């Protein structure tokens, strides 16, 4: 009975914080979600536009994307370590310490961008040989990646500036600038992929001779357009952070700070585990796709369609988790440790409501959406059965990403990395592979693609349970003064 009054007090406090906290949390979340969707839109247009040139160009871009996207996400995750640092300093009123911290993040971003570019220039051909990629696809994909490589420092610097802006409670610029990136990406894709022939087909033959004579670069053109939009986003974000008054007394571009070991160390301490956790999640889905490749094209198509649709819906819980990091960090920076605990659990509560909304959306829209993706009834049927499984993991998925978001607000990132490694690979991937290829001996036959999806549900559920327990201990320990937050 001793715990009942505590629980009643906790719930009363949570309800009271919910009333004041939910609206600012959602206000931060929606622009982040829009920015994520705009950036996802670039990948979709790349695939759609190259697919119209030839199957070889489409394969080259698809294979190339599976190499540069995980690299970019690792960089993004590492630089996301800046968001809780800025949020803490803002909450504590130590705005004079924000500028040097952001400058260190820009140095780290530049280094990560250059290393990523070198990796894409030097290591892709040996990887393609190892993977037995057909010669023509490998050649075009290497050309595509050599162009994308030029954009990697630009996108890394953009992500550092975005992490700063998010930490300052100012998430709208990332939305508008991601839309600018998309607006640059689509027309430059068209011109560079299809060349003069595409332009003539669209506008007629009254165009000047030099425009009609532009070469159609296919996959290479797509890579150039991607790099171009990365640098446009970087420069737009730099101009915005320089001119805008939204950042108050933080004059970001005033007197640059040289690299400082301690500040870079703090950023990497918080950020690298986030980067690794995101990388682990991406590789989980990549490896599952590779394992499923041997199960026939109907299965592969159904898996990709179901995964593509559910990953679009995942953007909302993901954006909420990024906003939750900011809100928790701000509140802890103000020294309000008990309120920070309530802010964290309120975010988790909102994530459950969003998951229920997503599940209902899947239930009502699955059939018409599947029909938009494909006319093949076998693919539609199989994809719909996978969507039913996806409805089961919406709550686990939304919970695990938002519990992790709240923990990042406490700068508690290493444990997230370890839990993610265990839950995704040992439970999700290994368990799913076992169910897919062996089934439960004596109980079921091998479950094929459904086995892998059941493994995903198990992995995400285990991650949610372990992260939930970690957040419970961390929030309680910090509120009681038994645990420290990582030092600023």
TrEMBL record:
Keyword list, A-Z: Antiport, Cell membrane, Ion transport, Membrane, Transmembrane, Transmembrane helix, Transport
Membrane topology reported for the UniProt record: Multi-pass membrane protein
Cross-referenced Pfam families: MatE (PF01554)
Matching CDD domains: MATE_NorM_like
The keyword Electron transport is annotated on this UniProt entry: no
Subcellular location, record wording: Cell inner membrane
Transport in keyword set: yes
PANTHER family: FMN_FAD EXPORTER YEEO-RELATED, MULTIDRUG RESISTANCE PROTEIN NORM-RELATED
Name of the featured protein: Multidrug-efflux transporter
UniProt organism field: Billgrantia bachuensis
